[in-house]
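Can't paste images in this forum, so I'm doing it all in text. The chain is below; anyone willing to post the predicted structure tokens underneath?
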Amino acid sequence: MSVLEAAWKHEFISTNGIKLHCVTQGSGPLMLMLHGFPEFWYSWRHQIPEFASDYKVVAVDLRGYNDSDKPHDQSAYVMAEFVQDVKGIIQGLGYESCVLVGHDWGGAIAWNFAYAYPQMVDKLIVMNLPHPAKFAEGLRTPQQLLRSWYIFLFQLPVLPELLIQLGDYQAISAALEGMAVNKSTFSPSDIEAYKDAAAKRGALTATINYYRNIARGFLDRQNWSVLQVPTLMIWGEKDVALGKELTYGTADYVRDFQIQYLPNCSHWVHQEEPQLVNRYMRDFLASKAV
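Text version of the structure:
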């Protein structure tokens, strides 16, 4: 299924002073999906139709990505703004709460939003992004520092953008296909869709600015209480960017916590093993809170 062939509804939501593009399908309780880097709403293509039978599924382009607004100032890309974006989306759609699903950067935002507004999250599902306290711990270890080398590269001005653009955005293909265990996960049209999204004016700088501000509001918080929102973590164990050990001890921070490991799966867990991920999500959504 290509972006052009998808029969989903495209719309824009005004929130927090900007407009965010999203794709929606279905009706019922709200399920809000937040993607990661270097992606856009399309990374949820296997989940949107699956859950549209029971939910109003909304997959957002985060600020700076694809067709969403791309504020010019680097200071616009901090966790406090991302959290307010999510709040505005939920309220703008006429809901008081949602099932919140996030992967990678979307997972980081989902964790922070659940802490800031727990009453607005019925259940939380996070894929291949550790609890912020565990990530901060991990970045103090040599093995995770090596895995996270790109974060340090992204602190530089201009150069990261130039490197990603080289060879018709070859870095996008390398990140997606190169990290995947199953090399057939991404079709040529999928890769083109991700390249096209990254190539939109202002998108590269905007999305890299997430990393340039990573210490502001994401890694600087020291005290994390026990989250009361029922939470499922889904983790592809062959993630080359984030080690499995970052998941250990997460239950200390979440009262009602479940985790599902996928042993032969990469960082792109929901695209590489969509049927299994969808099943784990369904089982969790059907379970009663502890």
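The mean pLDDT is 95. The chain is about 35% helix and 15% strand.
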